[in-house]
Write a structure and sequence with these properties.
Elements lengths: L3 H21 L7 H16 L10 H11 L5 H19 L5 H9 L2 H10 L1 H17 L4 E4 L2 E4 L2 E4 L9 H20 L1 E2 L2 H28 L7 H30 L1 E2 L11 H19 L22 E4 L5 E4 L3 E7 L10 H7 L3 E10 L2 E10 L2 E10 L4 E2 L2 H9 L6 E7 L2 H11 L4
Antiparallel strand pairs: 1-2, 2-3, 4-5, 6-7, 7-8, 8-13, 9-10, 10-11, 11-12, 11-13
Helix pairs in contact: 1-11, 2-5, 2-8, 3-4, 4-11, 7-9, 8-9, 8-10, 9-10
Length: 434
């Protein structure tokens, strides 16, 4: 049985190969957040004190392995891989900090999806707040959805900007501060206090973005201006880094508990643990290299197009498409409450379109999203909502909670047309049917 450095080398090469395969197939993206998070991981592993070996994650790993055969999604397999890596570290070296798991989540597509989808209403709200504050300051601004207009110039609150994309970097900066003060003070904060501090970082990041938007509008700084990014960094330092740094220093001084390195634990069944780790590594390889499953299923209820006016087709990924000369409708069934929803915000961008003028509106007594799509000279108008034939909503939390409580599954309905008149007519035709 391999031991010591040779054993570590085996697991490092094995898990590194799985991570590289996820990078190669496009699941993981080597962007700035991924690279910074990876560097921070090495920093934490080297800086945090030894806490003694542990098998506490074995049950978690086993449950995720079993779950992977029922929830055949790449994201679930990635979570299984994360827990497997943490188990190997803990069983052969030392207990890990929860901060390591947070980093692994932040650098993953799961975090990017959650940030993109669940901060979408926040971006719209930020536009409204910024507009109201500017109006109070007597600036001639008008707000339409995510667009703030001042003297004929539009400013959009968009994830492509440096705004809410900084959420991941803000959280990584907060984790760095926690590790730094833990190392320098040789103390640690309770898990609940660490969690609350990270929630505060998220809240301060929203404040930072609000102030960034206001400054960009006041000084009329366009996205192509290099100062646009500099303003984002300055707001991050001023409204996130400095307050969190001061607060973390105080919390460690006031509530920190002394950390003492624990003696190395020698398990009686060392060979069995090595075999177990090898089996887990091979199991992760089997899961990662399985064919990628598309997270979508067939519609729960039959859908009949209005008066047979639309041609229908079922796409390879299970989405149902209806189209005629004036409108295009996608019905995207969502398998479960934990599933991704194929949001138009991301899907249309994948087709090369740019979203503008995103807004919420009441239409036919229901709240739905509207937006404008642009690609070169091509302009389309789109709307979308969630429905399960009983309820219509645009809230991610609302439809997921209803599914958890046992209501029928939801589907995302996306209606697109060349002009506003055709769009509204298509919505009137389709909303009662879905």
């Amino acid at each position: 049985m391999l031991a010591g450095k040779k054993e570590w080398l085996l697991y490092f090469i094995g898990y590194a190969a799985l991570i590289i395969s996820l990078l190669a197939n496009g699941y993981l993206i080597a962007d700035s957040t991924f690279l910074i998070g990876t560097g921070l991981l090495a920093f934490i592993i080297c800086m945090l004190p030894a806490r003694g070996k542990s098998l506490r994650l074995l049950l978690v790993v086993m449950l995720f392995f079993i779950g992977s055969f029922f929830i055949q999604e790449l994201t679930f397999r990635y979570l299984t891989l994360l827990f497997a890596i943490l188990f190997t570290i803990e069983s052969l070296y030392s207990k890990t900090s929860p901060l390591i798991f947070w980093i692994l989540i932040i650098i993953s597509p799961l975090f990017k999806y959650l940030s993109e989808v669940f901060t979408f209403p926040i971006r719209l709200q930020l536009s409204e707040w910024a507009g109201k504050l500017l109006q109070i300051a007597n600036f001639p601004v008008t707000v339409t959805g995510n667009v703030i207009q001042v003297n004929g110039t539009d400013f959009r609150v968009d994830p492509a900007c440096m705004g809410l994309q900084m959420t991941g970097f803000s959280l990584l900066a907060g984790i760095f501060l926690l590790v730094h003060y833990q190392r320098s003070s040789r103390k640690e904060l309770p898990l609940l206090m660490n969690t609350l501090l990270m929630i505060l970082v998220f809240g301060l990041n929203i404040l930072s973005n609000l102030m960034r938007i206001i400054m960009l509008v006041i000084f009329k700084i366009a996205p192509e201006n290099p100062i646009h990014d500099i303003v984002g960094v300055l707001c991050l330092l001023l409204y996130v880094w400095i307050p969190v740094s001061l607060l973390a220093r105080y919390l460690f001084k006031r509530y920190g508990r002394l950390v003492s390195e624990r003696p190395i634990v020698v398990f009686r069944w060392k060979s069995m643990i090595s075999v177990l780790n090898c089996m887990i590594l091979l199991g992760c390889g089997y899961l990662i290299f399985q064919e990628k499953k598309i997270n979508i299923s067939s519609a729960k209820n039959p859908i009949i197009s209005p008066a047979g006016e639309y041609n229908s087709s079922v796409l390879r990924n299970g989405i149902i498409r209806f189209r005629n000369d004036s409108a295009l409708i996608y019905v995207k069934p969502i398998p479960a409450f934990y599933s991704t929803d194929h949001s138009p915000v991301t899907c249309w961008k994948g087709s090369g379109y740019e979203f503008t003028n995103i807004r919420e509106e009441n239409f036919a007594g229901r709240r739905i999203y509207f937006g404008t799509l642009k690609k070169g000279t091509d302009i389309l108008h789109t709307a979308w909502w969630f429905s399960n034939n009983h309820h219509t909503t645009i809230s991610q939390i609302d439809w997921r909670w209803k599914v958890i409580r046992g209501e029928p599954g939801f589907q995302l309905v996306n209606v697109t047309a060349g002009d506003q008149k055709d769009l509204k007519q298509a919505i009137i035709e389709w909303m009662p049917r879905i």
